[in-house]
Amino acid sequence: MNSRLISIIRKEFIQLFRDKRMLALILVIPLVQLFLLGYAAVNDVRNVPLAVFDQSHSVEGRELLAAFQAADYFKLTYAVDSNDEMLSLLETGAVKAGMVIPPDYAIRLQEGRAQVSFILDGSDPTVASTALAAAQLIGQSKSTEMMQQKISRMGSTVKIQPPVEVLTTVLYNPDMISAYFMIPGVIGMILFAITAILTATSVVRERERGTIEQLIVTPIRPIELVIGKITPYVLLSLFDAVEVIAVGHFWFGVPIRGSLLLIGLACSVFLFSGLGIGLFASTIANTQQEAMLTVWMTLLPAIFLGGFFFPIENMPQILQAISYAIPLRYFLRIIRVLLLKGVGIESIQGDMLALVIFGVVIMSAAALRFRKRLD
Q1: Are residues 164 and 261 in the same domain?
Q2: What is the rounded distance in angstroms from the CA atom of residue 302 to the CA atom of residue 165?
Q3: 279 and 343: one domain?
Q4: Are residues 210 and 320 located together in one domain of the fold?
Q5: Same domain, yes or no, for 189 and 275?
Q6: What's the whole-model pTM score?
Q7: How far is 161 from 144, CA to CA, in rounded Å?
Q8: DSSP assigned state of 39
Q9: 3-state class of 178 per DSSP?
Q10: Looking at the structure, do residues 210 and 148 belong to the same domain, yes or no?
């Protein structure tokens, strides 16, 4: 290795260590990926939120429910008093499954022909398929246990039918097609990634080229500069969202059961969070490369903790708590229930309010910091 090559390598190391922000990002991003992949990227489905409508109020019904809870696949979240209440919880995504124990369950169980209805939210095929298999397996296991008890009492020559049958129904996505779950998620990722990355790099690009000083000395006000810079990316992102919805519907067959007006409103509100993050990143970074890496620092947690790939319910409690600070979490729930379930504004108002609050806070903080940077 000659001295010229050594000099170049030495110079690059010196330059790298001078740029503290870039060095910090380079060292931190692998650790973030490691923890996210280690704890959030879990395919095991556990603690599926379950609503139970127990009409029998019997000891046998409670024993069946205890068998479902003991299996660790389901977590009793709600005890409801009607089918409509259960369907409402399924529509809003508060639960992923519902179980209906009929009023004559105890009597039919003694007769050896009891049936229990199990209703699943099929909008997330990964959770639905695992919950479906688990429900059938738990039902079979409970039946086998009861059959063995009965045989031991009556003798092995007695022919006994399985006493409990679990009748499963999958709503919203009966065939459990994965595209129905992923394509609405792609809309959220496009809106977030394009607006944040392009907004951040466009502002920093002006600073790198020295043209932002020329804009500052013009009569234009800071708020006008911000609006002028972000407007093209807003329109571009909305166009991409329409494009993905259209292709997803006409090519992949993803249903559009909700109001297009509500879908457009949700996309528009969510844009403010992405724009705010991009604008805020532009006030931190000095180069386009730094801006890209800064945005990626927010994009990675959003992908893993927002429910894009993996169920939030399966993550450790600390990561579930962190996910509440990620706007993508709320948008993905909104867009999926609008497209697949066709709910109204009353079912998504909580998530919409969260998006509005995030958008206002992030955009306001970014605009204030951007203005101070200009000053």
Answers
A1: no
A2: 41
A3: yes
A4: yes
A5: yes
A6: 0.77
A7: 10
A8: I
A9: coil
A10: no
Q: How many residues does the chain have?
A: 375
Q: Is residue 194 part of a domain?
A: yes
Measured at the alpha carbon of residue 223, what is the angle toward residues 221 and 228, in degrees to the nearest 5?
95
Question: Would you give the DSSP letter of residue 173?
Answer: -
Question: Which range of residues forms the domain containing residue 369?
Answer: 178-374
How do 97-101 and 48-54 pair as beta strands?
Answer: parallel
Helix (H, G, I), strand (E, B) or coil at 310: coil
Render each residue's pLDDT in the chain as its tens digit; 375 residues: 566 556 666 766 676 677 676 666 666 655 665 565 555 555 566 778 889 988 888 888 888 888 888 777 888 888 888 888 998 888 888 888 898 888 888 888 777 777 888 888 888 887 888 788 888 888 777 777 766 666 566 555 455 555 667 778 888 888 888 888 888 888 888 888 888 887 888 777 777 776 666 666 666 666 666 777 777 777 887 888 888 888 888 888 888 888 899 999 999 899 888 888 888 888 787 777 778 888 888 887 888 888 887 778 778 888 888 889 899 999 999 998 998 888 888 888 889 999 999 988 888 888 777 665 555
